[in-house]
Specification:
SalK, single chain, HTH_67
Length: about 290
C-alpha cells in the first residue's frame, strides 16, 4: 500500500471535485431538461444526480442524498421520471457537462494534453474505488466512460465525488448527526454552504434550521453565536479524518507521484473554472 503525504488525498479530491460539481451551478442542465418538458428548476438536481439509480422513489433519493428535506424530494420524485426518464436525463447531463466545461475551461484547455493527462490519472484512481455500501458511487460506476477527454475527466471526478460522499455519510450517521445538524455544523466551519444557500436549496424552513442549531448547542457542539465549540471542532475534524480513511484507496492506488500530478493539474483547471464564474460568489460563508 502506498503511503501518501498527510492530507494529500483530501487536497487532491478538493480540486478534482469542482470539475464535476460546476454542472450544479450552471443553467445548462436545467435548460436541457426544460427543453424535454421538465421546467421546475428545483427538480433538476434530483433528476441529474439520481438518474444513475434508475426510476427510484423519493425515499431512495432522500437516503442517498442525505441532506435534503424528504418533503422537498417527494415534491419532485418520482413524478419527474414521467417527464424525463433516467436514461434521457443521463444523456442530457453529458451534453450539459460538455457545454459547462467548454465555457468555464475554454477550448484551448479542453484540447490540451494536460487535460487528457488529468483524465487518465483520475480514471486510474477510480480503479480502486469500492461499490460496497456506496449506492451513489456504485450506480455511477455502472455508466460508460465518455470518449472525449474532458468528459472522461468529468466522469472520473463524478466517481471520486460519489465515492467520498457515500463514505462521508457513513461518518455522519456514526456521529449521530441528522441532515440539518450535519449541514449546520459544516456551515460553522466556514467551508460549508452559507445559510442562505441551504435554505434556498435544501427544503428546510428557518425554524427547522434554527432547531437543528439548537440541538447542536444542546450537545455542546455549537455556541450561542453559532460558532463551533472545541468539541464541535474536534467532531468535524474527526469526521473528515474518518472520511479520508474510508476514501483512501483510490489515491493510494494512484500513488504519491500520480496524486501530486493530478492535484497540480486539477488545481489549475478548477482555478480557471472559478475565475470564469463556475460557482456563485456567495456560495460559502461563515454565518
Amino acid at each position: 500500500m502506498t503511503t501518501l503525504p498527510e492530507l494529500a488525498a483530501r487536497r487532491c479530491y478538493s480540486v478534482v471535485n469542482p470539475l464535476h460539481s460546476a454542472i450544479y451551478f450552471s443553467p445548462d442542465f436545467g435548460e436541457e431538461l426544460a427543453q424535454l418538458g421538465l421546467k421546475d428548476g428545483a427538480a433538476t438536481y434530483f433528476v441529474g444526480r439520481a438518474a444513475p439509480l434508475g426510476r427510484v422513489g423519493a425515499g431512495i433519493v432522500t437516503a442517498t442524498f442525505f441532506n435534503f428535506s424528504h418533503d422537498l424530494v417527494a415534491r419532485h420524485i418520482p413524478a419527474a421520471w414521467d417527464v424525463v426518464s433516467p436514461e434521457v436525463a443521463l444523456e442530457a447531463r453529458v451534453r450539459a457537462a460538455d457545454s459547462v466545461l467548454r465555457r468555464v475551461l475554454g477550448e484551448e484547455v479542453i484540447a490540451s494534453k494536460e487535460l487528457a493527462e488529468a483524465a487518465e490519472l483520475a480514471l486510474r484512481a477510480t480503479e480502486a474505488c469500492s461499490r460496497l455500501a456506496r449506492p451513489l458511487y456504485a450506480a455511477h460506476a455502472d455508466l460508460p466512460v465518455p470518449d472525449a477527454p474532458h468528459l472522461a475527466l468529468w466522469h472520473a471526478a463524478t466517481l471520486l465525488r460519489e465515492h467520498r460522499g457515500d463514505a462521508h455519510l457513513m461518518t455522519l450517521v456514526g456521529a449521530g448527526l441528522d441532515a440539518v445538524e450535519a449541514l449546520a455544523s459544516h456551515t460553522a466551519t466556514g467551508q460549508g454552504m452559507s445559510t442562505k444557500w441551504i435554505l434556498r436549496t435544501r427544503g428546510y424552513s428557518a425554524e427547522e434550521w434554527e432547531a437543528g442549531r439548537q440541538r447542536l448547542r444542546d450537545r455542546g457542539l455549537l455556541t450561542a453565536e453559532n460558532e463551533l465549540t472545541e468539541a464541535g471542532e474536534r467532531l468535524r475534524q474527526d469526521l473528515e479524518a474518518e472520511t479520508d480513511r474510508l476514501d483512501a484507496a483510490p489515491y493510494e492506488h494512484l500513488g504519491a507521484e500520480g496524486v501530486s500530478r493530478l492535484t497540480e493539474l486539477a488545481t489549475a483547471f478548477s482555478k480557471t473554472a472559478r475565475e470564469n464564474g463556475a460557482f456563485p460568489a456567495d456560495l460559502r460563508s461563515k454565518d
